[in-house]
């Protein structure tokens, strides 16, 4: 069962990482054959990196086609819940890297590795964790020719 994917291309390991279940990730990694993929060529590590920012939404306020400002907010306004999400994401990433360190090098359909997502989200702790596992990932380029450093520098 751990080696199957649903109609959206999500494996059980991907879903467990996306939903923040450290226990389920650990259990699934104990299986003999485990699929780790997700949609758009992403892996369970991509899901772990992105999950703490998955509830982020943007609203643009415009008057007569002139954008005045852009607001960023999270569904989970509660700061404690947000902090727990970040900690669980790091825990999941650590577990995944311990068992499947190659996930750190795997890119999605846009050639973005997990470090590109962590850098674009400004998640310094996740970037640090990923680089500690393999510093060579700092040189990976996405389909636009950008490294994680370029990605981080181009964010607002």
Automatic annotation (TrEMBL):
UniProt KW keywords: ANK repeat
The organism's place on the tree of life at top rank: Eukaryota
InterPro entries per record: Ankyrin_rpt, Ankyrin_rpt-contain_sf
Pfam families assigned to the protein according to its UniProt record, in alphabetical order: Ank_2
ANK repeat copies, ranges: 8-29, 110-137
UniProt-listed PANTHER family: ANKYRIN REPEAT FAMILY PROTEIN (PTHR24121:SF21), NO MECHANORECEPTOR POTENTIAL C, ISOFORM D-RELATED (PTHR24121)
Protein name: Uncharacterized protein
């Amino acid at each position: 069962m751990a080696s199957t994917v649903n109609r959206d291309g999500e494996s059980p390991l991907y879903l467990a990482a996306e939903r923040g279940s450290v226990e389920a990730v650990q259990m699934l990694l104990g299986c003999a054959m485990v699929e780790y993929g997700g949609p758009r060529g992403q892996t369970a590590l991509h899901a772990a990196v992105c999950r703490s920012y998955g509830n982020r939404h943007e609203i643009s306020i415009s008057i007569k086609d002139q954008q005045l400002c852009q607001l960023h907010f999270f569904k989970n306004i509660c700061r404690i819940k947000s902090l727990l999400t970040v900690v669980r994401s790091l825990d999941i990433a650590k577990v995944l890297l311990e068992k499947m360190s190659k996930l750190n090098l795997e890119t999605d359909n846009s050639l973005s590795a997990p470090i590109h997502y962590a850098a674009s989200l400004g998640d310094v702790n996740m970037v640090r964790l990923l680089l500690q596992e393999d510093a060579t990932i700092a040189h990976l380029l996405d389909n636009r020719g950008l490294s994680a450093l370029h990605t981080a520098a181009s964010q607002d």
